[in-house]
Amino acid sequence: MRQGHPGRRVDKYGRTEAVQGKLGQREALRRLWAHVREFRAQLAVALTLTLVWSLVNLGYGGLAALFLDTIKNYDGKGTMGPLNFYAAVGVGIFIGRGVVNFLMNYAWASLQQRLTMRLRNEVFAHLQRLPVSFFDHRKTGQLMSSLTNDIPAVNAVLAAIQDSLSAPVLMVGGIGLLFFLNWPLALVSCICLPPTAAIIVQASKRIRSYTRQLQTNLAEVTEHADETISGARVVKSFGNEEYEIERFQKHSRHVFKSVLRTLRVRYAMVPLVELLGAIGIIMVLYVAGRQIITDPTSTLTFGKLTFFVLVLQQVANGAKNLGNISVNLTAAGVAADRVFTLLDVKNDIVDRPDAVELEHVDGRIRFADVSFAYSMGIPVLANISFEVAPGEVVAVVGPTGAGKTTIAALIPRFYDVTSGAILVDDVDIRDCTVKSLRRHIGIVPQDTVLFAGTLRENIEYGRLGASEEEIVAAARMANAWEFIEKMPDGLDTLIGERGARLSGGQRQRIAIARAVLRDPRILILDEATSSLDTASEALVQDALQKLVADRTTLVIAHRLSTVRNADKILVLKEGRIVEAGRHAELLAHGGVYSELYRTQFRWDDEAAPPRE
What global pTM score does this model have? Predict the structure, then answer.
């Protein structure tokens, strides 16, 4: 594999895929701990309840000892008072134990959900603020995997924190209690501790490795599912359903195998640890039994032996919890590494400290010797200079790859120029705030993007909080009201994901209505009428003509119908302006535009209705 973007791999075909983060597990866990500390009050409550729970588990066996010894020593002459008392105390202890168990589990679960919500909100907000260039190099599925897989996996750090308290309390406190009860038996029980520790350490190492691979495989499954579901029309149009099913099943098998490897080690560790614990208990029972049988003077009673065995079980539980700490820290570290690597991506489109607010815009745009290159360093635009007067319509044409769409993307600062400057009303757009700049710009993109909500919500997206009258007026101006009022729920009709329930022409008119509602001084049109039928195209073109009136408009032209009426046409070739003028002038010149007309625009011109 050859190296690509940070935190990613690039295969020999140039395809990128998600990999582990680049911080390292230790640094990722350090930063994760900083987030956990923000909930220090809730953490303190959860740890206190865990401590109480652990101490109760160590001590409740003493009640069993009192019960058994009271029964054994009863000679038939005394009262049943002590037994009744111990029974009442036992009921109280176990009721309290149940309450503590509930409160402890709820406290940790609440803390997990708080941490998940905090990180998920932080990651989503960060994604919203990142520049367009970031999404050029990432797949949606990879980002979704961070939100749906990595962030919940980070919660394993809380399980590790819980075990970090309970395991030492159970082990250290338990072993101390064992020696206090009967030190010879305690020495016998400790024989199994070294092999138990060795098994836990080896199992933890394997689980760490398998967990890393599992997170990567989960990301691949999410990524593939997102791509194929969002691209369902393409998959079906080419009849590649079985191919995609096979690909998904391959990724799914990788997850399946990773999970099984992890579970195999985890489930093998548990019975082995329990076997060693059982051997220790049997050895204790054997030695204790011989001591009771052969030594009449022994102070060891059945009650004390029962207490000893119960404490020994808690020590074994502590040993298992100790092994889980490493496993949970690994799972949390791997996930946190990926999450914080994403959060560390910097936004290179930021406001300067002295940036000004663009309160009012006349709409004059000037490109002053602008050059631009994407991250690969290959120049896309070279020394571009032109000016668009307020209210003027300028069309940009040229062969594929000439840089037309790049010019449109530079004006709202989706990218920053490599050199030169872009000025709006003689203000360098880098000297004003991004939000105020974009407030004066409306965009109707080539690929219309609608959200899976109602028609109302999609139009209102142009200016949140617009009134019903304003939304209807925008829809009428965009020639969209005619089909909206025929919908079963009017503006409140659900349109499906990406506007799937609308035709191409209807989607385009909703996008235009959204731009109308925004009422921008500067309008950027990346036309998408070439795939529409004649009737839909006529309605869209009519809506566009209404929209461009009295606005500074930059048209990325694909059809001659908008080119020939433009006040000025810029002809791009290999990132440079090679010609500029009106339609008739450029045709008469016989240059690049004339050639484009003959090869690309001529049939559009002949099919268009005659101009009045």
Answer: 0.77
